[in-house]
């Protein structure tokens, strides 16, 4: 197995681990704000891993790369807002 295959395999394993961690977190019944924070971080980390290693968006200045990075900032921010508003409503 060459280094490229090893890297892709390790990234895939990291994505699987983050996904399983998210599923476990959802079952634990932790406080909403803490759960929202961790889920937002997991979404951002997974998004950046996918952009960097699977979408081929490594070149600087790519519009699609910028849009995708913005997406993975906006979505976690919305998760935090949703978690914060549900905490305030409780």
List the helices and strands and how they pair.
Layout: H1 3-28, H2 32-53, H3 63-89
Task: Tell me about this structure.
This protein has 90 residues and is an all-alpha fold. The chain has one domain. 83% of the residues lie in helices and 0% in strands. The protein contains three helices and no strands. Helix 1 (3-28) runs antiparallel to helix 2 and helix 2 packs antiparallel against helix 3 (63-89). The termini are far apart. The model has no long low-confidence stretch (mean pLDDT 82).
Summarize the structure.
With 90 residues, the chain is mostly helical.
State the order of secondary-structure elements, H for helix, E for strand.
Answer: HHH
Sheet-strand content, in percent, reads under 5%
- H/I helix tally: 3
Report the end-to-end length measured between terminal Cα atoms: 52 Å
Features of this protein?
membrane; cell membrane; transmembrane
């Amino acid at each position: 197995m060459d280094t490229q295959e090893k890297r892709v395999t390790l990234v895939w394993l990291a994505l699987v681990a983050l996904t399983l961690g998210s599923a476990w977190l959802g079952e634990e019944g932790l406080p909403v704000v803490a759960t929202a924070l961790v889920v937002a971080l997991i979404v951002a980390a997974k998004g950046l891993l996918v952009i960097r290693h699977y979408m081929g968006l490594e070149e600087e200045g790519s519009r699609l790369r910028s849009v995708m990075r913005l997406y993975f900032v906006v979505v976690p921010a919305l998760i935090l807002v949703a978690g914060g508003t549900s905490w305030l409503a409780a």
